[in-house]
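Render this sequence as a predicted structure.
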Amino acid sequence: MFLQRTDKAQQELLPGQRQLSLREHSLLLLAENMPRAQLEQMYHGQGQLLVQRLLAAGYLALPRSPNTAASSTNLHHVRMHMLDLCERLLAERWHDTAQRLRQQLRKARDAEGMLHAREQFLQAVQLHAGIDSARRLARQLEDLLAERSLETV
């Protein structure tokens, strides 16, 4: 899950407006592009405390609930794209892997399930086609399958 910066955070990031410690400030800068779990692992285990502090102080917020219709349409689009990639990249040579991934994609009903399916897909590509191919594909999928795009209207 990606956290969202609040208006208070935007003010903090303006030049000459620093109220937070250097670590809190740097974590606030990173929060826009990094999953919460990664943020919480930073600073030798202090990240979780920093994230909680920034949430409690109103600098960060949990994502707003998406409009259900828009969200399901976006999930459908992502699912169809991933099924197409699965067919093109894996089905012919690695039929069993492709079948397992297709089933997982069909069962994914929310952003979390789709993100899990994406990770499984990238691991399969890495196993069968190499790490460079998986990295290239991950970069291509980043915008389409980012947590934010699955959860926003």
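Summary. Strands lie at 4-5, 60-61. The mean pLDDT is 81.
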